[in-house]
Each structure stands twice: as structure tokens, then as C-alpha cells.
Specification:
There is one protein chain. It is built from 27 helices and 26 strands. The protein is α/β, with parallel strands linked by helices. The chain has an 8-stranded mixed β-sheet with strand order 5-6-4-7-8-3-9-10, with helices on both faces. A hairpin with a 4-residue loop joins strand 18 and strand 19. Helix 11 runs parallel beside helix 12. The longest helix has 24 residues. About 3% of the residues have low confidence.
């Protein structure tokens, strides 16, 4: 039996809760093309619009040709309770994308076949059988429909010229899927007319509405202060489609410089929006607040747009709801609501988020092409570009190359880049050295033909004295001495465990009038936010003399390097790579306006703690397999050389010298040779893994925050701490929260589930998997509709009771929880800890 073309359905629709026939295949293909054409009309006149032509919609026009098959029609009519039995046997694993791919390959339209096959977000390598596709009659109908649609819209039925994986292919994939998403959402009926007004309503309703900026704004009108020299210079060197690298000291105004250049590119050069990418969720949250204020200044009030926040925990800060769960007035922000989805965020004109979100455009995760399409034509700002390892750094280089081919302008910001890294990012690895490269601050940019260098007036210098320490006890004595003199001391460790140990000692020894605090990642997010707020007020630039007075000691980990704007009088830091050490020193005497509030005894000093000196070691020994180093030992050894040979530095004058002395290539012998080979092997592995993550063989259907964009040797899970659990009545008592939390049922409203999920998520603590309770000790199946609890061996969330006596964790039967050789616990001011203590006999 051959079903007439008009009766071949593409969609079903619900009417009063009953599933009814939707539109036919030809109508859906026609609607998808027309939606795609409306998208191109929306983009016309922009830098993204320059990348497309009408024939790029051929994929949208034919993407679902595989629904004109007996297998799909059996499936869709079966869902309506109307068995047709067109195939003659029971249909198993029908895949209309694979059918589209097979049909188009049979017509020798190979690249178009890949477009159609991949439009659900993953590579479709399947091949539909002849029985699924249909024989004579079905094949003629498929070809006839394709040819008729092409004639209707003035297209040739021919293959597209771009290959799978190329930037243009990826863009057209994004256009095809976006058009399919929007046309499918129209919910067309069987005989419904498709008007231009309805098409335009779908486009504008999804937020694809042109924006304009207020013209002629000065730097001071936007930011409220006159520009520094480097900010003025950057605004003068406007090269659309270029790649910029701005290097200036910590707190030197890089963010404002990048945003003002982005504003001018929007104003003069037809860019499609801005994406501001940062290394962590916390830095993204901080910049998001500043970015929202920036948008208020550059956009007309009647055309205001919402700045989306894009990262795995961004939904916790959803602006469309107030704290009690009631919807806020959404004003013009409503137009961006459709973009507020993990796969769609980059389609919004303005967003801030983690670099992972845009890196997923170059690795093979599901819907990577949608992220690429969303980035096209935008100004993309990548901050703290120095903070990535060889794995993520390799992906960033691939990203920059792709963005340039997609008519983007890329702005890279850092205080601590080496010459080699800068040239790699600019695509100038083999370039002839330029005398200006040694200047600091420095603006470098690729204008499409060559790399240009521009020096600028250096800011006010800062002299920092250097003290070396070999014993943590000596550093503790000095920290207490400085605090007793009324100084604000900052102590940064490389690991959470070391930070906790230092905190325990200092808290025990400090006088009552000295405040001692601890910030690291193993607190629940609501506790960490509270701590950050408190210590930012104590150490921040807007602090009063009364608040600043009195000794204080804040201990923390790398989060204090770049995520929080704090100013210390005295800095103690564990030895780390030079670029990270300079970032930490950026928290020392950071705001000159606070100099008048510092105690008269205070001096600008960094104390570098290194209990394991690398110099003069007799021979190299390979580290134990289970030993994990936060930083490469070779880089630490080179950094130690550089810093221990100095008694003071002048910033920013010496920054370039310090970095180049640490990282410049040199021949090594003996112990250093072994360390260098250790680093090179690891670098080769990470770069290889990064290249593999971009290849077809590693394509995955998952799409999670950070998947494939970061490399870590230490797996982590999240832990939920409970004080009581009443499963019978569906109630939990979370540690740190008053009263019981009622767990909504699976049939509860989305809002009820949203708010309970939000509360639960804010109480999660990220901990190493090897030092976490086993899932079996406290199963969480009753929360599976609120949190992703995994399955089988993959259990990303664990739970435990917390003992009020000593903070030791217990399982559902109230037995003490242990993980291998560790006892596990949590204390309010320490956070999550695990200790290799002797077990009671």
C-alpha cells in the first residue's frame, strides 16, 4: 500500500488533551524553509547575515524527507491508534533522520545527506533498510515532493558545497535545526494555512528581534569615569573580524576596555551581539552583574534586552522569579525568555557565561552547531585567558580559528601571558619578533593580514618585597604577628586540605579580637556566597575605616586569585606558577585609595611558602602513580628559581621578565630534565585528547556543563547533607536550613518542583569521588524527579546524615560513613573534610 502524499503526516497535535493529526510532511518542510528564510531576513545586514545565502536553506527544506516512508507513517499513525501496517512487519527503531540521510545519499547528495541526518544534534551514521524506506511508488513520491518544493522556492536540487565539520557546514546545521525547532513549535493542523504573519510571529516571539544601540556614547558616559590610557588605545584600534590580546596588570581596567570596544563594534560594524566568557561560574556571576549595567547604558530603554547568564548553575539565579516563587514583571526581558535554555543560550544577543558554553561549539557534543550558529557575527570576549591547561588551551585555539571564520571579533584578556602563548592565540607562532613585544601593558591584534603591536603608558608602579619561607609554622607566626598589628592578611593555598589545616591552626592560636576566615569550594553554594559577601565587605575597595580596622586573616584557595575583589596588606602564598603568583599578588595593596587606612607598620610584602625546594636534588624520580600534583613540578621548579633570586619586584614593570624567565624554552640536565620530560609527556597527552574531542569518533549525545572542555584527573560528585529524613511523608531536613522541606510529588507543578530543586541544589557540596560516601549507603531514588541522580555505576549525587557531634557523616542506618582509608565529615567553618585517621577497633 502506498499512502497518498497529502496523507503522509509529519506531526501530531493535542486538542483538548486528545492526540490528533497534525500537518503533512510537505507542509512541515515548507514551513521549515519559510521559517529559515525569515531567520535569514532577520540576520540580513549583520556580520552573521553575510555568511548565508538562500540556497543554504536546502537542508531545512529536505531535512524530514525521511518521514515520507512507510516506516515513519506506521509509527505516527500507530501513535494515533490507527494501525496501517505499511511495512508489513513490526517497525523497530524507526529513525526518520537516518531515512532522510539514506534517501539523499541515494540521490548522490552526500553533504546534504549529512545535514539532514544530523539535524537532531548528533552524527547519524545509521542506514534505513529498503523495507523502512518503501519501494516503487514511495521512492517516486519522495523525489517528486523534493523537486516540487525546490521549484516552489527557486532552488536547484543539488548537493551543497561544504563538507561535514567545516565552519560553514556547522553554521548551516545550526540554521537547519533552528528552523526545524521553530516550525515544529507552530503546532500546525492538517489543513492550516501558513501566513507570513504567523511565520513572523514565531520568529519575533522567540526573541529574534533586531536591537539598536545608543550612538555616540563616550567611555565616561558608559562607565562613569574617564578612560585609562590602555582603554583609550583599544577603542581607537577598531578592526572588525580581528583578534585582540590585551595584557595589562590586575585591576587595570581590562573589562571596561573590552566592553567599550565591543560597544563601538556594535555601533559601527554590524556585529550581532556580545558573549563574555570566563573561566569559572563565580567569575561569570560577578561579571554578569557589571554587564547588566553596561547594557542599560548602551541600549535604548524601550529596547532593553536581558543579559543571559550561561553556566551549569545559572538557573539558580533565574531573574524571572522572585525569592518567594512569584513571577516578577518581565518587561521587555520577555523577548529573551525563549533563549533561556541550555542549548539556546548563545542564540541570545547578549550573554555572559563560562568559556565551556562556547567551547562546546568546537567539540563533538550534541547540538554543538547550535552554539556555533549563536556565536556567528558576535563580539566574543575571553577573559583570564592565561588560566587554562594544555587541554583547554588547545580547544581555545580551535575556537578562535572557528570564530574568525564566522565573522566574529575576538577579544582576549590577561595580565600574565608569555610571548609564545600570545602569538599562538593570534595565529602568529612563526612571526618575526617585534621589539614592542617586550612592552607592558601591551595591545596586540591581528588585522587580517599581520599582527600589530601597540604599547601604552604604564600605570602607577607598585614595589613588592619578597620573603621566602620553608616552614608553615614560621609563616603562621608571621601571619599572627601582622594581624596583631592590625593588618589584613591573605593566605592562599593550592589545595583545600592545606587551607583547612592552616585555618585550624590559626583559629586556635589567634586572639579573640582577630577575625579568621576560610573560603574554598567544599562548602554548599549558599554558605560560600555568605562567606564571600562577608569578606569582600571586610577586604573590599569600598570598606570604611571602621570596618577595615583590626587584624584579620583570610585563608583560601585559587578562588581568591581572580574571583573576588579583595585587597590585603600582607600576602602569604604557597609556591605556584609565576603567572598564578602574579595573579595572587594582584590582591596585595590592590586599591591605592585604601593606603590611608593601612596600619603604619604595613608594608607591601608577599611571603612565598615552599616546604619542598626543587634546587640541588640529586636525581629525578618518577612520582607515584596515585600522586596528584596541582601544578606541573617543572613549572614550579622554574618559578622557584625566578622568585628566590629576587628580594623585590616592581609591577607592572617586571611582569614580562618574570614570565619569560619562567617559561622560555631551555635545555635541561639531571633532575630538571626529568621534570621537563614529565611535563612534555603530559602536555602531549592533553593536546591529543583535545584534538580527539573534536573528531567524529568522540561524538557524544550528551551536553553537560564542562563535558569535554576541561580535563581533570580527579573525578568529583556532589553531596547532600541531611539532619533527618522522613521518606514516608516526603520530608527532608537539610543541614543548615530551618525546619523540614516537603518534597513535591512527581505530578506537582513545574514551579513547585523548580523551587525545591533550587533549594536542594544550593545545599550540594562538590567533593572528590574517592572521598565521598557510596551511593548505596543512602539511595536517592525518591529525588530522581528533582535532581539528576544517575544510574548504575554513574551516581553524580550522594547523601549522608551529619552527626551533630564532631560533624562525622553517617549513612541511612546511622552507621559512620567511611571511604577507603578516610573518615568523612563537615564542620560549619571548615567545610567538607576527609582525614586518614585510625579507625576505632
Amino acid at each position: 500500500m502506498i499512502l497518498p502524499v497529502k496523507e503522509c503526516l509529519a506531526k501530531t497535535k493535542k486538542i483538548d488533551g486528545t492526540l490528533e493529526k497534525g500537518c503533512d510532511v510537505s507542509t512541515h518542510l515548507r514551513a521549515t524553509f519559510r521559517v529559515g528564510l525569515a531567520i535569514l531576513n532577520f540576520l540580513r545586514g549583520t556580520r552573521a547575515g553575510d555568511l548565508f545565502e538562500t540556497r543554504d536553506l536546502l537542508g531545512a527544506l529536505l531535512h524530514d524527507i525521511g518521514k515520507l516512508t512507510p516506516a515513519f507513517q506506521d509509527k505516527i499513525y500507530g501513535a494515533l491508534g490507527m494501525a496501517l501496517n505499511l511495512v508489513g512487519v513490526e517497525v523497530q527503531d524507526e529513525n526518520h533522520a537516518a531515512s532522510s540521510r539514506t534517501i539523499l545519499k541515494g540521490w548522490k547528495l552526500y553533504h546534504l545527506a549529512d545535514l539532514a541526518g544530523d539535524h537532531h544534534g548528533w552524527v547519524c551514521k545509521g542506514k534505513s533498510s529498503g523495507a523502512h524506506l518503501g519501494q516503487s511508488g514511495w521512492k517516486e513520491n519522495q523525489r517528486a515532493v523534493a523537486e516540487a518544493l525546490c521549484r516552489e522556492f527557486g532552488l536547484e536540487l543539488e548537493d551543497v558545497p561544504y563538507k561535514w565539520g567545516s565552519p560553514k557546514f556547522r553554521l548551516v546545521q545550526g540554521l537547519t535545526s533552528l528552523a526545524d525547532w521553530l516550525s515544529s513549535g507552530m503546532d500546525l493542523g492538517a489543513d492550516e494555512e501558513l501566513s507570513d504573519e504567523k511565520i513572523q510571529s514565531v520568529i519575533s516571539g522567540a526573541g529574534f528581534v533586531p536591537f539598536r544601540v545608543n550612538e555616540g556614547l563616550s567611555f565616561e558616559e558608559i562607565f562613569g569615569f574617564p578612560p585609562f590610557a590602555v582603554q583609550s588605545l583599544m577603542a581607537e584600534k577598531m578592526v572588525p573580524g580581528g583578534v585582540y590580546v590585551l595584557e595589562t596588570e590586575m585591576g587595570g581596567g581590562k573589562t571596561e576596555a573590552a566592553l567599550y570596544l565591543a560597544y563601538r563594534l556594535l555601533e559601527k560594524e554590524r556585529h550581532n551581539g556580545i558573549y563574555f566568557a570566563l573561566p569559572t561560574q563565580l567569575t561569570s556571576d560577578k561579571i554578569h552583574e557589571r554587564f547588566k549595567e553596561f547594557l542599560k547604558k548602551i541600549l535604548p530603554e524601550q529596547e532593553s534586552r536581558r543579559a543571559l547568564l550561561l553556566h551549569g548553575q545559572a538557573w539558580l539565579r533565574n531573574e524571572l522569579y522572585s525569592s518567594d516563587g512569584e513571577e516578577m514583571e518581565q518587561r521587555a526581558a520577555d523577548r529573551d525568555a525563549w533563549f533561556d535554555h541550555r542549548k539556546r543560550g548563545l542564540l541570545a544577543p547578549f550573554a555572559v557565561g563560562t568559556v565551556d558554553q562556547i567551547l562546546m561549539a568546537v567539540i563533538n557534543v550534541r547540538y554543538n552547531f547550535m552554539r556555533a550558529f549563536g556565536a556567528a557575527g558576535k563580539v566574543v570576549i575571553l577573559d583570564e585567558i592565561h588560566s587554562y591547561d594544555a587541554y583547554t588551551g588547545t580547544l581555545i585555539q580551535a575556537l578562535i580559528k572557528m570564530l574568525r571564520e564566522m565573522n566574529c571579533t575576538v577579544i582576549l584578556l590577561s595580565a600574565t601571558l608569555t610571548r609564545q602563548t600570545r602569538n599562538d592565540l593570534l595565529g602568529n607562532s612563526d612571526g618575526t619578533p617585534n621589539p614592542l613585544e617586550s612592552c607592558y601593558p601591551l595591545l596586540s591584534y591581528h588585522d587580517g593580514e599581520a599582527v600589530q603591536f601597540e604599547k601604552t603608558e604604564p600605570p602607577q608602579s607598585k614595589t613588592v618585597s619578597i620573603v621566602s619561607s620553608r616552614k608553615v609554622e614560621d609563616s603562621i607566626d608571621r601571619a599572627l604577628e601582622k594581624a596583631e598589628n592590625g593588618e589584613c592578611v591573605l593566605w592562599i593555598e593550592n589545595t583545600v586540605r592545606d587551607a583547612q589545616n592552616v585555618f585550624r591552626i590559626l583559629r586556635a592560636r589567634a586572639e579573640k579580637n582577630i577575625q579568621v576566615g576560610l573560603i574554598h569550594s567544599r562548602f554548599p553554594s549558599f554558605v560560600r556566597s555568605r562567606q564571600e559577601k562577608k569578606w569582600t565587605e571586610l577586604y573590599g575597595k569600598n570598606v570604611t575605616a571602621e570596618t577595615r580596622a583590626g587584624g584579620k586573616i583570610l585563608i583560601g584557595t585559587q578562588v581568591l586569585e581572580q574571583s573576588i575583589d579583595i585587597d590585603a596588606d600582607y600576602l602569604i602564598t604557597r609556591l605556584c606558577p609565576t603567572d598564578m603568583l602574579l595573579q595572587r599578588i594582584g590582591r596585595l595593596w590592590r586599591h591605592r585609595r585604601l593606603d590611608a587606612l593601612r596600619p603604619s607598620t604595613a608594608r607591601c610584602v608577599v611571603e612565598i611558602l615552599n616546604e619542598e625546594p626543587y634546587a640541588n636534588r640529586p636525581e629525578y624520580k618518577k612520582p607515584p602513580h596515585e600522586k596528584h600534583y596541582v601544578y606541573a613540578r617543572y613549572v614550579l621548579a622554574r618559578s622557584q628559581e625566578v622568585w628566590e633570586s629576587r628580594s623585590e619586584i616592581v609591577l607592572p614593570r617586571d611582569m614580562r621578565t618574570l614570565l619569560e624567565e619562567t617559561y622560555t624554552e631551555r635545555e635541561e640536565t639531571g633532575y630538571y630534565k626529568g621534570l621537563k620530560e614529565e611535563l612534555e609527556k603530559r602536555k602531549d597527552v592533553l593536546e591529543g585528547l583535545a584534538r580527539l574531542s573534536q573528531g567524529d569518533a568522540e561524538r557524544t549525545r550528551k551536553d553537560e556543563e564542562g563535558l569535554g572542555t576541561r580535563y581533570s584527573e580527579e573525578a568529583t560528585v556532589e553531596l547532600l547533607l541531611l539532619e533527618d529524613c522522613d521518606r514516608e511523608n516526603g520530608r527532608l531536613k537539610l543541614h543548615g536550613r530551618e525546619g523540614f522541606l516537603t518534597i513535591p510529588g512527581k505530578n506537582a507543578t513545574p514551579r513547585e518542583k523548580f523551587w525545591v530543586s533550587r533549594i536542594l541544589t544550593k545545599h550540594l557540596i562538590r567533593v572528590p569521588e574517592h572521598a565521598a560516601p557510596a551511593y548505596e549507603s543512602f539511595k536517592l531514588d525518591f529525588l530522581s524527579h528533582l535532581l539528576y541522580i544517575g544510574q548504575n555505576e554513574d551516581r553524580p549525587i550522594r547523601a549522608a546524615f551529619i552527626d551533630s557531634c564532631g560533624g562525622i557523616l553517617r549513612d541511612f542506618s546511622h552507621n559512620v560513613v567511611e571511604s577507603g582509608k578516610y573518615k568523612l565529615g563537615y564542620q560549619e567553618n571548615i567545610g567538607y573534610f576527609y582525614a586518614a585517621e585510625e579507625k576505632q577497633k
